[in-house]
Write a structure and sequence with these properties.
This protein is α/β, with parallel strands linked by helices and 299 residues long. Helix content is 39%, strand content 14%.
Length: 299
């Protein structure tokens, strides 16, 4: 789940938007087919952490649309953003005449991918595994598609070194705090991050134990479960720090203010792109979170 905010058009505007995009999309299908296999790609990249790879490999100019959470990439300023987190229709994507779409396995919507392939667009589904090996596989996959294998090997080596350096600092942690991620604000339901989520991975890499380890994915947590989990620190997205009646919205989750973290006011956040998924900027994310969890170790 993305930690970013999505503005939703009103129903009448949505109908008009679908109509306009549908016409534009199917009008551009011949262009997409004709462009395939010639010259630079026209890429759509649905995940910010994959977009980071394309930019780092020097191919930002080939991206014609990108998923949300990519505002930290100055090279993509002005590039159209895809609406929402998961695209349930290919129409908005086809409207920019892509020749190739890069998605990750957690994003996959079979119907949308079938529509893209039927329109002659190449679709690459990348493994989303949140591990050093998984990131290196994504680097090499994207580098091969771009014909930049040598640059990909250099990028993979640099990432591996930076992760090892961050891990060497975390290895010095004597006590791992009990932590919880609360996704809140931005007119979205308030959820907590369980096993297998990107935020759980980041907490573990930065030297904390996720107390929401009894379930997978993002779920609502009851007041009783929140109090019983007893997090000592609460990590939230940036929208979660916005106050409502003087209280950060993340702490309005049932039971949050009754936890050790709530009573001590230990609510922390990091830039949203570190929460999207594991990628080449994860070492920076570990340090950004580590400075708040273990300030004596991360300088």
């Amino acid at each position: 789940m993305s930690a970013g905010r999505t503005d939703r058009p009103q129903p009448a505007r949505r109908t008009l938007l679908r109509t306009v995009l549908a016409g534009a999309a199917w009008a551009t299908v011949p262009t997409a087919r004709a462009a395939a296999g010639r010259g630079p790609h026209r890429l759509i990249v649905t995940n910010s952490y994959v977009a980071e790879l394309v930019v780092a490999l020097g191919a930002a100019s080939q991206i014609v649309a990108v998923g949300g959470g990519s505002d930290h990439l100055a090279e993509l300023a002005g590039v159209p953003r895809l609406p929402g987190f998961r695209q349930t229709s290919a129409e908005p994507m086809l409207s920019v005449a892509p020749t190739r779409v890069l998605v990750t396995s957690e994003w996959t919507v079979p119907q949308t991918l079938e529509q893209l392939r039927a329109a002659g667009v190449a679709v690459d589904v990348l493994d989303a595994q949140a591990s050093v090996a998984g990131v290196e596989r994504r680097i090499r996959h994207v580098a091969t598609l771009l014909g930049r294998e040598a640059e990909g090997e250099r990028l993979a080596a640099r990432f591996r070194t930076e992760m090892a350096e961050a891990a060497s600092v975390v290895a010095q942690v004597r006590r791992r705090p009990r932590a919880l991620f609360i996704l809140a604000g931005g007119q979205r339901p308030t959820l907590v991050g369980g096993r297998g989520t990107n935020v759980a991975t980041l907490l573990a890499l930065a030297g904390a134990d996720n107390v929401a380890d009894g379930f997978d994915g993002f779920k609502v947590m009851s007041q009783e479960a929140m109090i019983e989990a007893a997090p000592e620190v609460i990590l939230t997205n940036q929208d979660g720090t916005v106050p409502t009646d003087g209280v950060p919205v993340a702490l309005l989750a049932p039971g949050a203010r009754a936890t050790p973290a709530g009573r001590a006011g230990r609510l922390i956040t990091v830039p949203g792109h570190y929460l999207q998924g594991m990628g080449i900027l994860t070492p920076q994310g570990i340090r950004a979170l580590g400075r708040q969890l273990h300030p004596q170790l991360f300088r």
